UniProtKB/TrEMBL annotation:
It catalyses: N(6)-[(R)-dihydrolipoyl]-L-lysyl-[lipoyl-carrier protein] + a hydroperoxide = N(6)-[(R)-lipoyl]-L-lysyl-[lipoyl-carrier protein] + an alcohol + H2O. It is an enzyme of class 1 (oxidoreductase). It comes from Ferrovibrio xuzhouensis. This is Alkyl hydroperoxide reductase AhpD. The gene is ahpD. It comes from the Bacteria. It holds the Pfam family CMD. The active site is at residues 132, 135.
């Protein structure tokens, strides 16, 4: 499975997703590692096996083993943090939650195995997929401090948005046909 097979699997009504998937895969603005890591992290956040397999196959070779692990770690740690910090944010007026320590291990954030800015970018992409405003704001702030432009940050979120939409479309079509993309390809 590859990026092309994923695009082929999308129905005609999702033509814009096909076009966006293709253009974002090669769009300049981010380094190859940053772009590939965004695709991998967003794929894991999408929770769709077909999308994960296709984007992993497409982008794995563009990442060092350490960067590949870090992209997956960003999806894992943000899967936890996005729930926790979304709760804290939703509690709004109950400020005691904001002052309580999270008491959750987050060691990978301090030592992700790649440049901090790359890990922050991947964490932002996952946080956008998971809808955690508090985490999106925090990662965007760190990325700006790290020297990334608004356009670079936007590109990571655009990747996350398209990957998420592709996963939702693939799942919808599989639900209607009663099979997964992998089963349909056999």
């Amino acid at each position: 499975m590859s990026l092309e097979s994923l695009k082929t699997a999308l129905p005609e009504y999702a033509r814009d997703l096909k076009l966006n998937l293709g253009s974002l895969a090669t769009e300049p603005g981010l380094t190859e590692q940053q772009r590939a890591g965004c695709f991998i992290a967003a794929a894991y956040a999408s929770r769709n096996a077909d999308v994960i397999r296709a984007l992993y196959a497409e982008f794995e070779s563009k990442l060092s083993p350490e960067a590949l692990t870090a992209a997956k770690a960003a999806a894992a740690i943000m899967g936890m943090n996005n729930i926790y910090y979304r709760f804290v944010h939703m509690m709004g007026g109950a400020s005691d939650y904001k002052t309580l320590p999270a008491k959750l291990r987050m060691n990978v954030i301090g030592k992700p195995g790649v440049e901090k800015v790359d890990f922050e970018l991947w964490s932002l992409a996952v946080s956008a997929v998971n809808g955690c405003g508090m985490c999106v704001e925090a990662h965007e702030h760190e990325l700006r401090k790290g020297g990334l432009t608004a356009e670079q940050i936007q590109q990571a979120v655009r990747i996350a948005a398209v990957v998420h939409a592709v996963a939702a479309t693939i799942e919808g079509e599989a639900a209607m046909s009663g099979s997964s993309l992998a089963e349909a390809a056999e």
